Amino acid sequence: MNAADPDAAAGSVTAAGPTTAASTSTAARTASAWMTSRAQLWSEWLAQSAARPRQLDVETAQRYIERYRALARDLVTARRLLPGSRATAALEAMYVGAHAGIDRSERQTGASLLRLLRDDIPVVVGSLRPTILWLGLLLFAAAAAGSWLVTVYPELIALVASPKMIDAVEHGRLWTEGMLNIAPASIVSVRILSNNIVVSLFAFCAGIFFGLGAFYIVAVNGLMLGALFAFTHQFGLDGELLKFTLAHGPVELSVICISAAAGTALGESLIRPSAPTRRESFQQAAGRVARVLVACALLLIGCGLIEGFVSPDPGVSLATRAIIGLGYWLLMLLWLGGRLFPRRPMRAAPQGS
Amino acid sequence: MTGVDVALDIAGVGSRSYAFIIDWHIRLLLALGWFCSGWLLIKAFGVALPSMTAPPRVLGVAAVAPAIGIYLLYHPVLELVLRGRTPGKRRAGVRIVTRQGGTPGTAALLIRNIFRLLDSLPFFYLLGLGSCLITEQRVRIGDLAAGTLLVIDSESAAKTLAQLGSMVAHSGLPPVLVELMHDLLERWAALDIARRDELARSILARADPSTPTAQLEGLTDTELARRLRQWLDSGRADR
């Protein structure tokens, strides 16, 4: 039991059980010797932690891991020698800090982003395909219902369109006319794409209500679409509306269905948990399906640009709009189907690796 | 990883709200700062450049859009850059960790922030607050989805370790006594004079039992504090 080997001393004290005054004093001396022997090291560790660089080389990373293990040993010793003390609490804090520094996910690099776009997103979309199709059907059913409702009860248009929109259509022009006179295309694009991204994210998040929230978002969008087409049809402007929506609409509506399908997967994870607890199931589902939101956001940026630069431009012909709309939609299908980015064949690992 | 378990203190609704309110003020000030400077620039250039024919509404949007961007992207960007911390969280002494105590990754932090849309409903983060109140680990829906926790950041506590270690090394006193002296000196100003003098005398008597009680009784408040510091610095005190 000497200061040179405080850990061994700590073990012998604990084994003997410091019940008498003499052994208490011995324990105090041992703790003191142990802390004295480690003080310099702790100061160094603290200084290193404060100056931790963002990128570590292998040697430094190994030093961190060794330090982390040494901290764990120190913590165990401190818990035996100084239970409930401030030194033990401080060691715990240092250990937690070292743990957080080591236990972190890999840095997002270009390769991981490419993997996400090329492999992960198509796989998740593939698993969501039946739900996406059902939600597409719901969208069309809601659009048909909206169209029928406004055809039979024209006054219901007030529920989905603003008075300004109604007034424009009643005067024989679409509310989208002159959009570029109010703001430049770039600003229109940013406004539209940010709004669409929020709707898409909301369709995803609302899935937490056992999928009902996602159904609601899709149904409302379908209802509005059908109602607006029926309303413009009454004034002979449905062709103009179709012309306006043709270039960006197919992808925009598909994206709403995809994000709602991801939201439905969240709801399903709560209804039919695939993990021991609903929380774990929800967390796993969120981590898995949230990847499609990256695709949704990227596709909606494209939609926003089309809606800002192409759709309101009267100079763009119907055929051009149809080509853009269909082309963009096919591009989306190819990407989400995993056919856009070629996958490299798996190579055998080099020998000795 | 090492088989040593450590319990993390979960931050409650109070700490969470405190951090949020600080962050809210910061982002509001940043957004307002941008908006005001943008507006002033537009005004200045609008007068100086007659060729600038854009309608005022466009210029207004140009000033407002980045301000909205700052307001909305404050949390996701800062949490990603600062690895689960924001200025508000730092001030409130909390940080985001994974359920294993690790640093959350980019995906987890983004998922956590996407769910702000839901947590903020119907207003003032009512849903999120409700979730914090009813869940065992005081988490909002975003944390549930991302598998993260908001914990009390004890990094500052780690700094006392080096101090205590060096005090024990210099004083040669038992660590328990060093901690008592350190604690007492830290709280010195906050304690009642009679109470702190009584505690100081008791600790000094334990540090050096050979000191006569009458001598300790004769020491003033300032002398007692000086003696405690001397013990911590050098392991002895002037008689």
Describe the protein's topology:
The complex is a heterodimer of chains A (353) and B (239).
Chain A: H1 6-16, H2 21-50, H3 58-81, H4 86-102, H5 110-152, H6 163-170, H7 179-182, H8 185-205, H9 212-234, H10 238-246, H11 249-271, H12 278-289, H13 291-309, H14 318-336
Helix pairs in contact in A: 1-2, 3-4, 5-9, 5-11, 5-13, 8-9, 8-11, 8-13, 9-10, 9-11, 11-12, 11-13, 11-14
Chain B: H1 13-48, H2 56-81, H3 87-92, E1 94-98, H4 106-114, H5 116-119, H6 126-134, H7 141-146, E2 148-152, H8 155-171, H9 175-186, H10 193-207, H11 213-217, H12 221-234
Helix pairs in contact in B: 1-2, 2-4, 8-9, 8-12, 9-10, 9-12, 10-12
Short description:
The complex is a heterodimer of chains A (353) and B (239). With 353 residues, chain A is an all-alpha fold.
List keywords for this structure.
heterodimer; A: 353 residues; mainly alpha; 14 helices; disordered N terminus; B: 239 residues; two-stranded antiparallel sheet; 67% helix
Q: Report the biggest beta sheet of chain B as strand number plus sense, adding barrel if it closes.
A: 2 strands, antiparallel
Give the percentage of residues in beta strands of chain A.
Answer: under 5%
Describe the global form of chain B: elongated
- Give the helix tally of chain B: 12
Number of helices of chain A: 14
Structural class of chain B: mainly alpha
What does this molecule look like?
Chain A is mostly helical and 353 residues long. Chain A is built from 14 helices and no strands. The model of chain A is unreliable at 1-19 (pLDDT under 50). Chain A has helices spanning 6-16, 21-50, 58-81, 86-102, 110-152, 163-170, 179-182, 185-205, 212-234, 238-246, 249-271, 278-289, 291-309, 318-336. Chain A folds into two domains: 6-102, no CATH class; 110-336, no CATH class. Chain B is mainly alpha-helical and 239 residues long. Chain B folds into two domains: 13-152, no CATH class; 159-234, no CATH class. Chain B has a two-stranded antiparallel sheet. In chain B, helix 9 packs antiparallel against helix 10 (193-207) and helix 10 (193-207) packs parallel to helix 12 (221-234). The longest helix of chain B has 36 residues, at 13-48. Classes of the chains: A mainly alpha (353), B mainly alpha (239). At the A-B interface, helix 2, helix 3, helix 4, helix 8 and helix 12 of A face helix 2, helix 4, helix 7, helix 8 and helix 9 of B.
